[in-house]
Amino acid sequence: MLTADAESEGLDRDFWQQEAQQLHWQHPFEQVVEFVESGPRRRWFSEGKTNLCFNALDRHLALRADRCAIIHRDFCGETHQLSYRELWQQVNALSSLMTEWGIRQGDRVLIALPMTPLAAVAMLACARLGAIHVVVYSSITSEALAQRIQACTPALFLHHSDSRGRESLPTIPSTAENMRVVDTASAAYVQQLALHMDRHVPCVWLSSSEPSHILFTSGTSGVPKGIVRDTGGYAVALLASLRHLFHLADDEVFFTSADVGWVTGHSYGIYAPLLAGLTTVMCESSAVNAPGQNWWHMVAELGITRMLTIAGAIRLARRQGPPRASLTSLRTLYLAGEPLDESTETWVRDVMAVSCENHYWQTESGWPLLAGQGTKLSAVFSRSVEVINPLNGEASPEGETGMLIIKNTLGPGAMLTLWQDDTQHDQRYWLQHRGQWCYATHDCAIKQDSVIVIQGRMDDVINIGGKRLATAEVENALSGLPGMVEVVANRTPHPLLGEMVALFVVTEALTSTQQALLKQEIRKRLVERCGRHALPRRIHFRYQLPKTFSGKFLRRMLLD
Ligand code: AMP
């Protein structure tokens, strides 16, 4: 039980003290959590020393060395397996080679590798040496790559020049100072690595709050920010989430569809399943591995028990009709990363016949902040959440849109700070509310009957003559309209009202008469569900909509 004080803080020290016992600590921690100076930054399990790689690999060797750690579905659709022992050997070999290259604790290592086990090996080798990995999506644009190199000044850049079905690869800047560039597709790399194959490299024991990685946000909400995450807090949080939120058993085969360059890929594609000694599926993106029937066949063939993806992927999969493979192995489908619409959730439940959970989180949080069924979400564990009016900081009345805040702490495993920018971290994300630090999610939400409904980013709100309408509200209202595949709501200027709704719609193959009918249906539905002010000024039909690499709509590219 929480004490009254701890409860209002959203903290359960006893719970986290206990969960931390699931890990190996080379040196025990003294305090569960403490403020850095007077806040808002926190340190978890300070004084404790541990290592992510040791906990994800070495710790399992005694009992599960032969268990499959990674199932790799390559870009041709072929399947390969790697046991915990094999993964440990490969990580040691690369750690040894990286040591020869002079990589030390605290150095940044930039990783742009395809979704093959090598990406996991590289991350774990960094963790072993105490180097900070900065993984980017391997088909990142040249411009974004240059920006990340400038921001985090890596000592080493690992990339893979063989396209492996990827459409485009970035240009590698030749000018970055003191950065060793290694092409893991080159014969030279393969030969060098072979010389280190039987080496054993001891783990570097890190203080719990030392950074394990930097992850740049996807940029859906502005300029990418370098999120810095710790070591011990991250490991404890991920393991606790698997036990108490995902309720995983010991036999799970976990498939996270996101690339390792995204937070879901980091947390539930690599670290969480390996920390728990389970099997994870790494799937290279290509036509043969696209959402839809190929995924369902993969679930059946590999016996996948849990799957974590984005609602947009399920909407794509739906276009191919009901699954034509048995999904009996699949225990739960987790959807995270964007609002979950009613019709997608109903389809998962009724047509896939699989239970579905909605998880709300941010790159900043590292793991889910809220979870629930459909759109009705509640705080995960003891977090204390509130919806406030962002103008005056007062709690929003039930049913009224405001900003979601998390009181006091995001919990272990969340960002420590922004890379070399404590000031921006403190000012952008944290506010003082009644003498307490509160994390501003910058997401609109409504609180109703003790549940939270997320409506979208604060800057995704349309102001129609003073009436505020979240784009997610409009999109939700339209979900499930026959003939419509995807819809994005956006703002368009209006001389009198200031702004009005503009819609971008992807449909099934429709004649122009059917399109005209759909427009009528859209208008009728919006008036019924959101009110007359939601009537769109324009409705554009599109063949497809611009998305980030991680599959989220790029609204700013759709400004009318
Ligand atoms: P990112 O950090 O780029 O992964 O994006 C995080 C943002 O995605 C959040 O701030 C929300 O706006 C959105 N998001 C994530 N999960 C959900 C969810 N389950 N429902 C609604 N929006 C979500």
UniProtKB/TrEMBL annotation:
Every Acetyl-coenzyme A synthetase N-terminal domain range: 14-56
Domain AMP-binding enzyme C-terminal residue range list: 473-552
InterPro entries registered for this protein in UniProt: ACAS_N, AMP-bd_C, AMP-bd_C_sf, AMP-binding_CS, AMP-dep_synth/lig_dom, ANL_N_sf
Residue ranges annotated for the AMP-dependent synthetase/ligase domain, each copy included: 59-408
Matches recorded under Pfam families: ACAS_N, AMP-binding, AMP-binding_C
Domain of life: Bacteria
Gene3D superfamilies, alphabetized: 3.30.300.30, N-terminal domain of ligase-like
Family, as annotated: Belongs to the ATP-dependent AMP-binding enzyme family.
Protein name: AMP-binding protein
Organism in which the protein naturally occurs: Candidatus Pantoea formicae
